[in-house]
Amino acid sequence: MEYVPRFSHPLLQPHRDDVRLSVISLLGGLLLWFLGLHSQGDRLLLPGWATLVPLCLLAALELVRRTAPAFALVAGTLGVVADQFTQGNLATVIMFADLVYAAVVYGTPQAARRIPVTTGVITLAVTVGFLAWFRKPEALLIGTVTGLVSFAPALTGSILRNHRQAAVAARLRAEQTALLAEMDRAQAVTAERARMARELHDMVANHLSAIAIHSTAALSIDTPETSVRALSVIRENSVQGLAEMRRLIGLLRESDDDQEPTAAPTLDGLDALLARSRTFGADSGLSFTLDDARPPGLKLPTPVELAAYRIVQESLTNALKHASPGPVAVTLAHARTALTVTVTSPFGGGRPGPRAPGSGAGLVGMQERVALLDGELTAGPVTLDDGTKMWRVRAELPAEDESEELPT
């Protein structure tokens, strides 16, 4: 069974370096006393062994220079004063200087600020006092010794403590910077994953929905004409979906050759997009129209063009999945600093032919795209003046005309 000590007070467990310092200082002081090397003249009132009392006291205080620096400094001050009434020992004075240093380094912040000031004032007072008393240049030597024993250790300890605090503060700042960098990296990874998910969904969902609808039709309607037409649509969407996937992979992969990545789709490709939708939705009784009311020569930022294209693409995909027979209208308009995209499709009622299941991620992706551009998106059922129920997706994207040149 492991032995656990009953008492673990810091005063009873001095640092091993303090123990070494105490033992070395005590042995050095005893050697000086044994050799008769005293720091002062004979004191007739006290015997020679009295010098050992302050020496032993200061050596004992060295054991608690870290754990009780304030107590060690106060008791050490009394010990060094008592040493002045004996023959004196240089080791006692050196140990007192070390206690002053330790009180600044290991003491409280208040003590670290006050001790250098106090010792400086004492040094100045001793110098001025002895000059006024002796009126001899030798008084400056006493002030210098006082400063070396008290003010110099306090100043050294203050400088060291400030350096340690600066090092700790720098380490904390480095840790905080690393933490913020890691948070930024995680947010960037999350945002990039969300962007990839939106791109993947918007590019592939349209083609896979058409494949699902026509494959279901081919299985449910067993006629050669239906099977051939369904297989043709399936093949076309498979090829187009594969091309879209290759384009996305090419954008994500770092290329070492001189090939340039394929340009992102723009609103100029809506005619081809609606043409494919007409082919896919013919069996479901859907018709598709495009009303482009944008001014001629309008040039919009690339992110806006891509977002608008994806919104129309996702809306058409949803119409192919869920809309009732009727017209699907796409409207584009630009007024001053905003591009408005509106897609309406029949809502409610039954529709012939099979339907493809939806995941609900398309509307979320559209909302994310619009939010990234600080735009507004509304999606939901509306009732027209003639009582027809429609599903309308309307997005307003801030977009200025980049074709307008600023005056020079």
Essential attributes:
single chain, 408 residues, alpha+beta, Heat Shock Protein 90, 2 domains, 5-stranded mixed sheet, 5 strands, rod-shaped, disordered N terminus
Care to describe what's here?
With 408 residues, the protein is α+β, with helices and mostly antiparallel strands. The protein has two domains: 10-178, no CATH class; 267-408, Histidine kinase-like ATPase, C-terminal domain (Heat Shock Protein 90, 2-Layer Sandwich). The protein is built from ten helices and five strands; from the N terminus they run H-H-H-H-H-H-H-H-E-H-E-E-H-E-E. The protein has a five-stranded mixed sheet with strand order 1-2-3-5-4, covered by helices on one side. Helix 9 (302-322) links the parallel strand 1 (286-292) and strand 2 (326-335). Helix 6 (138-220) crosses helix 10. The protein is rod-shaped.
Sheet with most strands: 5 strands, mixed
Low-confidence stretches: 1-5
Order of helices and strands: HHHHHHHHEHEEHEE
Please, how many helices? 10
Q: Which class of secondary structure composition applies to the elements? A: alpha+beta
